[in-house]
Amino acid sequence: MSTIRKTARSLFVLALLATGLSVATPANASTAINQTPCGNRGDLLHVWGHISGRPLIEGPNGPFEVCYANGGDAQLGNHAWIDQVSTGNNDILMHDANGDNVLLFRLNFRTYSQAKHITFIKII
């Protein structure tokens, strides 16, 4: 067999392997989370908190209320403090600014006497 044919065949096999791996590897779901209006729904991840310590140029300090649906990560930033959270029908992982991870299971409602400094929340 000629060298050109061997090289072509090797490249073809390599291309097939690369295609197979890209099809078999699932896409990253971390971008699937959606912010959604809260309304009266109990199935959503519902977060109450406040923004503290932001430079005035970025906007005012104060309370916020936000809801999320679907799996993935929600970045809250470095100045978010969580006062209450309702997991709805979601298992969630909250990442504290000090490096701790807080796992809460579905159908859970928490009120924190001292707000948690959460930088992002992941719906698992």
Number of strands: 9
Low-confidence stretches: 11-30
Q: What string, H for helix and E for strand, traces the elements in order?
A: HEEEEEEEEE
Categorize the overall geometry: globular
Rg over CA atoms, rounded to whole Å, is: 22 Å
| Known CATH architecture | Sandwich
Structural class: alpha+beta
Biggest sheet details: 5 strands, antiparallel
Q: Which CATH first-tier class would you pick? A: Mainly Beta
Q: Ends: how far apart?
A: 53 Å
SS strand fraction: 35-45%
Describe the overall structure.
By secondary structure, this protein is α+β, with helices and mostly antiparallel strands. It has a single domain (29-123), classed as Gamma-B Crystallin, domain 1, CATH 2.60.20. The protein has one helix and nine strands. The strands form two sheets. It has a five-stranded antiparallel beta sheet with strand order 1-3-2-5-8, with no helix packed on it. The chain has a four-stranded antiparallel beta sheet with strand order 4-9-6-7, with no helix packed on it. A hairpin with a 4-residue loop joins β6 and β7 (101-104). The radius of gyration is 22 Å and the shape is globular. Mean pLDDT is 80; it is low at 11-30.
Question: How are the SSEs placed, and which strands pair?
Answer:
Layout: H1 3-24, E1 34-36, E2 45-51, E3 62-69, E4 72-75, E5 80-86, E6 92-96, E7 101-104, E8 109-116, E9 118-123
Antiparallel strand pairs: 1-3, 2-3, 2-5, 4-9, 5-8, 6-7, 6-9
